[in-house]
Known about the structure:
Rossmann fold, 2 domains, 36% helix, 19% strand
Amino acid sequence: xxxxxxxxxxxxxxxxxxxxxxxxxxxxxxxxxxxxxxxxxxxxxxxxxxxxxxxxxxxxxxxxxxxxxxxxxxxxxxxxxxxxxxxxxxxxxxxxxxxxxxxxxxxxxxxxxxxxxxxxxxxxxxxxxxxxxxxxxxxxxxxxxxxxxxxxxxxxxxxxxxxxxxxxxxxxxxxxxxxxxxxxxxxxxxxxxxxxxxxxxxxxxxxxxxxxxxxxxxxxxxxxxxxxxxxxxxxxxxxxxxxxxxxxxxxxxxxxxxxxxxxxxxxxxxxxxxxxxxxxxxxxxxxxxxxxxxxxxxxxxxxxxxxxxxxxxxxxxxxxxxxxxxxxxxxxxxxxxxxxxxxxxxxxxxxxxxxxxxxxxxxxxxxxxxxxxx
Length: 374
C-alpha cells in the first residue's frame, strides 16, 4: 500500500502541505478525486485532519473513499479535503462542500464535531457523518467508529511478549477518552502475557506531527523502553524504532513491508464497507440516522499481519484471544481492574459499562503517566 521511500519523504515534508485539500493527481486545488459525475451521480465528501499519505488514520479513510468509487462507479462523485485543522476553520470547508452540492459529508476527526453539528442543523437535506463523534439527536447526523480497543488489546499482547526490559513506550496524541481507552486496553493486553510490564505514556497533543511523534518515541527508548506503540496518525515512531532497533506496534495501517525488522502488528479499521453502504443509502433515498460502533465480530476492526519478531507461540495466543473476543466469550474490560492508585474500578465478575468506556478518564494499573486535565 505504501512505497518504501514514503516514510522519509513524509517526515521531511508533511508539515509543509497546504491547509486544505489537494487532489490525488495534483490537478485541482479543490481536493476532488478523479471520479467524475455523469450528471446524475450523488456527490460525497470527506474531510481529513491530515494528508492522504500520512501512512495511518487519513490514509485508511481515503482508502475507504476509494473503495466507494470502485464499488459504486459512476453513481458517485467523491471529493476530499485534507490537512483541515480542527476548530473553526472546518466550518468554512463544510460550507464550501455543501455549496458544491455534496449530499453526504464524512468528517474523520473528533475536533470537527461542533462545526459538523452546526452545519447539520443548518442544512437538513444534507447527511452528515462524524467519525469518533458524540451521539446526538440531530436527525441528519450520524456518528461512527469501532472498538479499536479490542484490537489494541491484541497488539498489546504482541508488545508484552516482545519486551525484555518490561517497559513499553506509548506515543499518545490527545488526552481524550478515546485515547485513554485505547491505552488502557493496550496495557491490559500487555499484562495478560507479561504481568510485570509497564506502559509509559508521552503526550504530543497532536494527531499528526511526525517530528514530535519521532522525538517522543526516541525519548521513551532513551528512558528504558524497548518496544514503542503508536496512537497517532504517522509512522514516525516506527522510524525511531527502526533506527534504535526496538519493536513497534502501529495504529491504523499495515506497515509490515516498510518496517520488516521492527514490526509487530497494529490495530486497523476497514472503512470501505461502511462508507459504501452509507453512500449507497443516499443514492437509494433510504439513509437513516444511526450511531454505529463496529467490532472485531463484524469485521470493522482487526489486527494487521504479524511481523517476523512475533513468535509462533505468541501468534497462537493472540489468535486464540481474538476468537474469544469475536465470539463474545472474552470482554477486554472485564474485572477485576484497578487504577494506577490501586483503587478497584471494575469488580471481579463485572464489566466496565460501555458508557463508562466512552468517557473514561483514568489509567489502569501498569500505565505510567498522567492524564492532563483541560
